[in-house]
Amino acid sequence: MRPAELERLTVAEAADRYVELVRARTLTGALSPSTAEVYARDVATLVDLAGAAVVLDDLTGQDVDAVLLAFARKPDGRAARAQPAGDRSAGGRGGSRSGPGSGGGWQVDGAARQPAAGQSAVGQSASSQARFRRSISALFQHATLAGWVQINPMTASTVTAKERGGLRPHRRALTREQAQGLIGAARALPEEPPAAGKRRDQRTELRDGLIVLLLATVGPRVSELVRANVEDFFSNDGVRYWRIFGKGGRTRDVPLPDDVARVLQVYLARGRPAVQDKALLLSWRGRRLARGDVQAVIDRVQARVDADRQRSVTPHGLRHTTATHLLADAVDMDAVRRVLGHSDLSTLGRYRDELPGELEVAMRSHPLLRGSGPPQ
Predict the structure, then answer these.
(1) Based on the domain organization, do 111 and 182 belong to the same domain?
(2) Which of 36, 98, 142, 327 is the most exposed place for a label (fewest CB within 10 A)?
(3) What's the CA gap between 284 and 205, in Å, rounded?
(4) Cα-flanking dihedrals φ and ψ of residue 139, to 5°?
(5) Residue 302's domain is classified under what CATH number?
(6) Residue from 133, 221, 227, 325 carrying the catalytic annotation
(7) What is the pLDDT of residue 44?
(8) 96 near 107, Cβ under 8 Å?
(9) Is 162 an annotated catalytic residue?
């Protein structure tokens, strides 16, 4: 319920309070520290673009649109760092606050949308624009509930980031043949003879095979994978489960396929270094595996796949692969949602990629034509 009286905070005051709240949520596990810092950075950008002294409740949908356009035109910091120092531009606001009596809107004309002389023409990527919009939208949602604004101006905003044109190839789901090639290579790793010149404590084949099998069949986030501890895996009624600690402090118990459970058991028995660390996945030095090491593991296993079934893929691409093939095999959508750890079904749609020949198969086995004979 909205408070009875409106609190007319400036944009800077509202931003400070909101960022303090966001950072406090990291203490309960509701947000990761890195996510909280992204919110804080985007909110600071909003203050810069909207004006620190402007009252938050005075911002309209037009003002929000002007802020979003100004952010889209800001030079990408990564591109700016690649330029000679003399060619860098500090950028600036994308519009000027109009004077009294003009309705309080931002004035943005066509010319202002072009980079100024000497300014980098490289603006923010579509994904960065979408992230910034989500960040300030979350601030305004909180402001509406807290009584800082009467009406959420995001509801009147019309500027959105352009479509990304589909996922980048390495983030798309692997085809069935590509996924089976990768899984086959991962399964074969535990059976391979010891590599010449490697001590037993330096062998990581069992670990690498387990990593790829978990990513390709269960689809965890890479952060969930490297956070896993040995104690998170348990058996119940003959089924091996993985208790995954996901976003927002939520947990889910996911049953492992039999083949994956067997590799896990072999890894725990003779592949994992005998150290005090409770982490499931360890480096050969006995330390918890880092997120950045997982891609190298996938690449090593991928190198063992037949050339005609190889395709580079990220850990997130394997998450897409899990979702896509479970759904293509008519697995219940809610079951897939629970495996991946999404809070609602609408999010699941982003993880469902197209597969070659999928539409043709669907139309050949059309449900309205099953059992009907040829026309007489």
Answers:
(1) no
(2) 98
(3) 11
(4) -60, -45
(5) 1.10.443.10
(6) 221
(7) 95
(8) yes
(9) no
Question: Are 52 and 119 in the same domain?
Answer: yes
- Give catalytic status of residue 247 as yes or no: yes
Which residue's entry shows tokens 């592949």? 271
Per the DSSP assignment, residues forming a β-bridge with 234 are 241
The answer to the question of residue 162 being in a domain is: no
- High-pLDDT (> 90) share of the chain, %: 43
SS3 22: helix
**pLDDT at residue 81 in the model:** 47
Q: What angle do CA 286, 266, 186 make, to 5 degrees?
A: 85
Instruction: Tell me if residue 235 falls in helix, strand or coil.
Output: strand
Tell me, yes or no, whether 366 lies in a domain. no
Q: Which of 1-10, 23-32, 211-220, 282-291 has the lowest mean pLDDT?
A: 1-10
Cβ within 8 Å of residue 209, ≥6 positions away: 186, 187, 188, 189, 190, 263, 267, 301
In a domain, 2, yes or no: no
320 is catalytic: no
Catalytic one of 187, 247, 300, 304: 247
Domain around 131: 11-156
Measured CA distances, 170 to 249, 310, 314, 316 (Å): 29, 11, 6, 9
**221 given a catalytic annotation:** yes
110 & 177 share domain: no
Q: Say what the pTM is.
A: 0.56
Residues 185 and 229 in one domain: yes
The strand pair at 239-245 and 233-236 is best described as antiparallel
Which amino acid, 298? Answer: I
CA–CA separation, 9 vs 167, rounded Å? 40
Kindly list the distances between the CA atom of residue 74 and the CA atoms of 48, 88, 110, 116, 231, in Å, as whole numbers in the listed order.
12, 12, 16, 11, 47
- Residue 286 is encoded by which pair of tokens? 């006995």
What is the token pair recorded at 119?
Answer: 């300014």
Q: What would the mean pLDDT of 160-183 be, rounded to a whole number?
A: 74
As for how many domains the chain has, the answer is 2
- CB within 8 Å of 280: residues ≥ 6 apart: 228, 229, 230, 232, 233, 272
Q: How many other C-beta atoms can be found within 10 angstroms of the C-beta atom of residue 161?
A: 18
Q: Is 337 a catalytic residue?
A: no
Q: How far apart are the first and last CA of the chain?
A: 66
Q: Which of 172, 319, 320, 325 is catalytic?
A: 319
